[in-house]
Design brief:
Order of helices and strands: HEHEHHHHHEEHEHEE
Mean pLDDT: 92
Radius of gyration: 18 Å
Number of strands: 7
Bound molecules: S-adenosylmethionine
CATH topology of the largest domain: Rossmann fold
Strand content: 15-25%
Shape: globular
Strand order of the largest sheet: 3-2-1-4-5-7-6
Helix content: 25-40%
Number of domains: 2
Number of helices: 9
Distance between the termini: 21 Å
CATH superfamily of the largest domain: Vaccinia Virus protein VP39
Length: 272
């Protein structure tokens, strides 16, 4: 993990964030590659760690993509708007009730960062209408605006093209010698073990199968591909014949996130 004081860290807490796994991932990243592509970017822990000179970041969560764009392109306005937010229960619910579509981009991004820093467990969860519905969280003194880190993130994001889209659109862009890192919503260990609905619709077994087809097509093209997923029979079957490395993660082991435990996860690679 990068230890430089000005190294960027994800400015959003994100379910399935890879911050805690970077030490184990570090020897697995390819030494050299062309362009970097991250089609399930979430909080961007791997991107901010690698800081590649040329990157395309995407995700199908429109609120997240708008937030990344605002931090990259309009950071002074985002910081200004964050400075007006405060950690108070009633105020939190008033901000949560706002219609984000009615706000300018920088204020929408500040609202998302504020809710993310002060909500229960730093979760991102929306109701059937797409409204953010996580309750107020209890913290002793949450940092709502970490300006130095936001500046470091904005510098890293300037090197990136940022788009909303499904993971399959990586096929329109990735060429021989490029590096693609896939971090999809994990295949559940059991029917109730994981919360995979980052957005409306969730990520089904059919999506895992489609992702394996995209992986195979990139492999055929000579693209370097790395993928994280849970250790389940389906994942092992989908990536049979490829290099599979086991890593140890600490994850919430019930749906409320109250109990945590060590768990084995998989990293699939098509290179040595
Ligand atoms: C496990 S998270 C990625 C976490 C990220 N690596 C991090 O460190 O924060 C999975 C991401 O996939 C996105 N996602 C879910 N379904 C998708 C799809 N069909 N296409 C693209 N992105 C999708 C979610 O919005 C979520 O941000």
């Amino acid at each position: 993990m990068s230890t430089k004081p000005d190294a960027p860290r994800p400015f959003l807490k994100w379910a399935g964030g890879k911050g805690q796994l970077l030490e184990q991932y570090r020897p697995l990243f390819p030494r050299r590659f062309g362009r970097y592509h991250e089609p399930f970017v979430g909080g961007g822990a791997v991107f901010f760690h690698l800081r590649p000179p040329q990157a395309t970041l995407s995700d199908d969560n429109a609120d997240l993509i708008d937030c990344l764009l605002a931090v990259r392109d309009d950071l002074p306005a985002v910081i200004d708007a964050l400075g007006r937010h405060r950690y108070e229960k009633e105020y939190y619910y008033a901000v949560r009730a706002q219609d984000p579509a009615a706000l300018p981009l920088a204020e929408r991004a500040a609202r998302m960062i504020f809710l993310n820093r002060t909500c229960f467990n730093g979760l991102y969860r929306v109701n059937s209408k797409g409204g953010f519905n996580v309750p107020f969280g209890r913290y002793s003194n949450p940092t709502i605006c970490d300006a130095p880190n936001l500046h470091a993130c904005a510098r890293a994001l300037k090197q990136a093209q940022i788009e909303r889209g499904p993971f399959g659109s990586v096929l329109d862009r990735a060429r021989r010698g490029d590096f693609v890192y896939f971090d999809p919503p994990y295949h559940p260990l059991s029917k109730t073990a994981y919360f995979t609905a980052y957005a409306k619709g969730g990520f089904r077994e059919e999506d895992q199968r489609e992702l394996a087809r995209v992986f195979a097509e990139l492999d055929r093209r000579g693209v370097l591909v790395m993928l994280s997923n849970s250790d389940t029979p389906l994942v092992r079957e989908l990536y049979k014949g490829l290099r599979i490395v086991r890593v140890q993660a600490t994850r919430s082991i019930n749906s409320k996130g109250a109990r945590r435990g060590a768990i084995t996860e998989l990293v699939v690679l098509n290179y040595r």
